[in-house]
Predict the 3D structure of the following.
Amino acid sequence: MGRLAERLRGLRDRGEKALIPFVTAGDPNLEVTEAIVLAIAEAGADAIELGVPFSDPMAEGPTIQRASERALASGTSLRRVLELVSRLRPRLDTPLVLMGYANNLLSMGEVGFAEAASSVGVDGVIAVDLPPEEGPEYFAALRKAEVDPILLAAPTTSRDRLAMLAKETRGFLYLVSLTGVTGARQSVSNTLEEEVAAVREISDVPICVGFGVSTPEQAARVTAFADGVVVGSALVDRIARAPSAEAAVDAAARFVGELRAALR
């Protein structure tokens, strides 16, 4: 069992919920991202998603699209994100997950990427636009390298496909809370609890909900029935609005601390 699965299973055994913040690596630059990751780990993140910036992030709303643009403009690349993880890993044991798009992640080749990710201490990878049947070599390479390939399910996913995704995912199943792109929302779906229950009927895999969760209150509501929550756009927005690098780190840590308190 990898570090990510062990962390989530341990939280479940203790009756606790996982808080997984998302930040775009390199926004506004990798040095600030490094400081933010250390700060939000200290503030209570159970795992951290690092978005690998991409020029055409089709699943992202305006907030993360703009963050990707800023990160690319600062010179961030997949290799530089892996270098960031290599610097972070000796200083924290928090699981680190890369989230990106197939064109970017596969630019190093399936085996090359999997081995590089494993060697620097990446715990899991989410390829937003790569379903398991379209990338068997990629998913096999990750598993062989002991990096968790994390799969996504949506409100429109059929029961048969849910069963397949729950079987094939590692670490956790990422349940998208809505149809559409990422972005902070005023409320979460009223059917979300039913969707989580549908997965529970067929698997005991940890379920973490993301896309649209933007407040401590929403996070608490979601984790009343899910194993964890991913919060991205609301955090990325706070980083973007901060007037300085130091203020961005402080704002990120403060918001993660508020989310952590809501889940206790």
User: Anything to note?
Assistant: Residues 245-263 form the longest helix (19 residues). Confidence is low (pLDDT under 50) at residues 179-187. DSSP finds twelve helices and nine strands in the chain.
